[in-house]
Amino acid sequence: MTERIFGTDGIRGTANTDPMTAETALRVGRAAGAAFHRGDHRHRVVIGKDTRLSGYLIEPALTAGFVSVGMDVILVGPVPTPAVAMLTRSLRADLGVMISASHNPHQDNGIKLVGPDGYKLSDDQERDIEARMSNLGDERASPSLLGRAQRLDDAIGRYIEYSKATFPRQLSLEGLKVVVDCANGAAYKAAPTVLWELGAEVIPVATTPDGTNINDGCGSISPEMMCQQVVTHGADIGIAFDGDADRLVIADETGRLLDGDQLMATMARRWQAADKLKGGGITATVMSNLGLEHYLEGLGLSLHRVQVGDRYVVSHMREHGTNIGGEQSGHIILSDFATTGDGLISALQMLAAVADEAKPVSEVVRAFDPLPQTLKSVTVTDRSTLEDAKVQLAIDSGTARLGKTGRLLVRPSGTEPLIRVMAEGENETLVTEVVDSIVGALEEAAH
C-alpha cells in the first residue's frame, strides 16, 4: 500500500522525525527526480529553503537524491517560496523544491514541490511520487551520468529585480515610512532591500535569523510587535510576512491589522477601475468574511469560494480565469505576476495603492467592515473526534442558531494536528457562544 506523506501543502512535520528525516528527503529526491526525468535533455532542479536550522539536514539529502538519478541541482539558499517558483521557470528547470514549514515553529520543516511551470504539483503528481517512493527500483543513474550540484550566488538579486518590476514605474515610495517584519525567515534580505530601493524609509524587524527564531513572536502569525513598531516609529504602514514569505498581513498607521480579505478587496476595486480585473470577481476560500462577499457584490463582482489551501485557490483561478485570489490569512495570489502566493509582491501592490491615492493606509486599504467572526483551534490526535455524537450535536445546534445570516465552518487543519472552528454572523455574542460550544464538545471528546 502506498504511503501517504503529502498533505495540503507538501510534506511537513517535526524535523528529524518521520516523515521529515534525511532518509525521507533522499527518497523524495530520487522519486521526484525520476518522475520529472522526461526526455533526453540535461535535467535540473532548483532547491531553496527558509532559515530553519533543519534546512542543513534536508537540503543535502534532497540534493543526493536528485543527483543519484541524474538531475543537476541548483542551490539558491534562503529565499522566499515564490522566488523558487520564479527561478524554476526562469532557469528552465524541470522541478523546483522549497524546504520550509511556512508559518510553523522552527522545530518543524517541510518540502514543497513545484513543476516546470512554477505551479505546485497536482494531487495526481504527488501520488505518483509517493508510489515511486514506496517502490524505488532501478532509477539510479550510472556513474558517468550522475547529476552535479552548484550554488546560484545571485538568486536573491534576481528575485529582488523581479519583484521591483511589478511596482508601477511612475510611482515611488519616497516619503513613506514602512515597518517590515520578516519573521526571521526567508524574506529577511529581499523585502527590506526592495522597499528601500523603491524609495521607502525602512524600519526592519525580525531580520536576524539564527536558525531557531523563525516565526518566534514575530511575523504574520504574531504581528503584535510589528503593530507596536508602527505606533512607536510613527510609520505609515507595517508589513509582516510568514517564515517563507508567501503570505502577509498589514497594519495601518494606527497599528490596526488588515487581513487578506481587506487586501483582496482593495486590489479588486483598483484593478476593476483600471480594467485589469479578470474573471468578473476574485477567488477566495470558505474562511473569507461575509463582509468581503457583500463588498464585492456592491461592485458588481463575484466571490468564488473554494476549500482552504492555496493550491485550490490557484486551481480555481486557472480554470475560471480570475487573476486575484487568496486566503484571509494573507496568502494572496496575483496571477499576472506570480504562480504562487507572494507576500512581497502583494505588499508592493498595497504600497502602490497608498502612493497613488496619497491617503492614509486606513482609508485606502480598509475597504469594508467585516462581520463579527471568531476562529478557535482545538488540538486533537485523532480527526475522528469530529464524528463524536456530542460534537455533531453542537455543530447542528450552532448552524441552526446562526441561521441564514451567518456561517459555520468546522474543519481539520491540513498542516497541524488541529481542528479549526470558525463562525461569523451579525451578532458577535451569538457567534462567540456557538464557537465556544463546539470547542467545548471537541475538547471533551478528545479526552
| Alpha-carbon distance between the two ends | 31 Å
- Stretches with pLDDT under 50, minimum 5 residues: none
CATH architecture of the largest domain: 3-Layer(aba) Sandwich
CATH level-1 class of the largest domain: Alpha Beta
Total E-strand runs: 18
Q: On the 0-100 scale, what is the average pLDDT? A: 95
Task: State the fourth-level CATH superfamily of the largest domain.
Answer: Alpha-D-Glucose-1,6-Bisphosphate, subunit A, domain 3
List the strand order in the largest sheet.
1-5-4-2-3-6
Q: Provide the CATH topology of the largest domain.
A: Alpha-D-Glucose-1,6-Bisphosphate, Chain A, domain 3
Specify the biggest β-sheet: 6 strands, mixed
Number of helices: 14
**Helical fraction:** 25-40%
Share of residues in strands: 15-25%
Number of separate domains: 4
Q: Using the CA coordinates, give the radius of gyration.
A: 22 Å
